[in-house]
Amino acid sequence: MVFRPTMAADGPSEDHSTRLSYHRYETSKGLALWTVYGKFDSPEAAKAELEYRAGTAVKIVVNGWQLDAKGDILGRRVEALLPSSAPTNRSVFAVMWTADRYFHEIHSNCKEAVLYAEKNARERN
């Protein structure tokens, strides 16, 4: 799957403590994937953003820990179904995680694309 960037923006986090970076990617077949990223002042603030965003979910699928390669806890990790803003009313699959004071979210109508993008994001770090 090859995604090309189609949009970039930024805006305030829920508590206005940091700017979140938003990016939209799309395949040639029209599959869209969104990423959200923010660097907060503290791990607690990043966790609060995750909890706020997960609180909008229709369903929490996984609620656990974000681990490093050695198995040490880096932060929280949530897989969730989010309400769709599109007229189809299909839920959107999302994975959200914190690592220290960083918050990440990836969401799309395609669960496999989200998990693939998450894996690639982790391998780059």
Walkthrough of the structure:
The chain has a single domain (4-124), classed as Protein Transport Mog1p, Chain A (3-Layer(aba) Sandwich), CATH 3.40.1000. Helix content is 21%, strand content 47%. It has 2 helices and 7 strands; from the N terminus they run E-E-E-H-E-E-E-E-H. A 7-stranded antiparallel sheet has the order 1-2-3-7-6-5-4.
**Which overall shape is indicated by the principal axes computed on the Cα atoms?**
globular
The SS-based structural class is alpha+beta
Number of helices: 2
Gyration radius over CA: 14 Å
Order of strands, main sheet, comes to 1-2-3-7-6-5-4
Taking pLDDT < 50 over at least 5 consecutive residues as the criterion, the unreliable ranges are: none
Beta-strand percent range: over 45%
Secondary structure topology:
Elements: E1 4-12, E2 19-26, E3 32-39, H1 43-54, E4 59-67, E5 73-82, E6 92-99, E7 102-108, H2 111-124
Antiparallel strand pairs: 1-2, 2-3, 3-7, 4-5, 5-6, 6-7
Task: Describe this structure in a few short sentences.
The protein is α+β, with helices and mostly antiparallel strands. The chain has one domain: 3-Layer(aba) Sandwich (Protein Transport Mog1p, Chain A).
